[in-house]
Amino acid sequence: MTVPDAALATLDERALVEACLSNQAGAFDLIVERHRRSVYMLCYRFVGNHEDASDLSQDVFLRAYRGLRSFRGQSSLGTWLYRIGVNVCLNRVSAKSPAVEPIEERQFVDDRAESPSERVLRAERGARVRAAIAQLPRKQRATLILRTYHEMSHQEIADVLGSSVGAVKANFFHALGSLKKLLGDVDM
Fold first, then answer.
1. Residue 109: is its pLDDT beyond 90?
2. In Å, what is the CA distance from 163 to each residue of 98, 139, 157?
3. Helix orientation angle between 77-95 and 154-161, rounded to the nearest 10 degrees
4. Burial class (CB in 10 A: 0-12, 13-18, 19+), 181
5. For residue 54, what pLDDT band results from cuts at 50, 70 and 90?
6. CA distances (Å), 139 to each of 14, 76, 91, 100, in order?
7. pTM for the whole thing?
């Protein structure tokens, strides 16, 4: 990855896309740098393991690079990348059953406040929730992941999925109901 020109760093999304389209060195690298964490986390939430999430993230950016001319700027670049990411992930998930690998909780949670038995219970509960989410229908899974883990609004999810706000709300409602059935009486 080349170090982006300092002038590129000041560009807004539209100007940065234009710089990419005019083959300005480092422009696409800056897009990747700005969005790689959110794209990676989106992919991870779909596949549940780091290796596949990394591969999918690369695929998302490759598709974005190849399709950059189709970006019209009607939504944010982040929303456009999420749409590509959701499509890439849904295609992968429907093609193969994911091998789930937990995120290392120690990176994000102060586990000194928890007893070992509480950590085991939390890990088991997390694994059950991830397995249940993986069983949801495609649109419900995408809606639940974007709403719950990425804290997107119903409108933002509708933009990413190319559907209506009403459909997003219905998918989220049905996803929660399906999760409740799949998980039974798990203490969440």
1. no
2. 26, 10, 8
3. 60
4. exposed
5. very high
6. 29, 21, 12, 20
7. 0.68
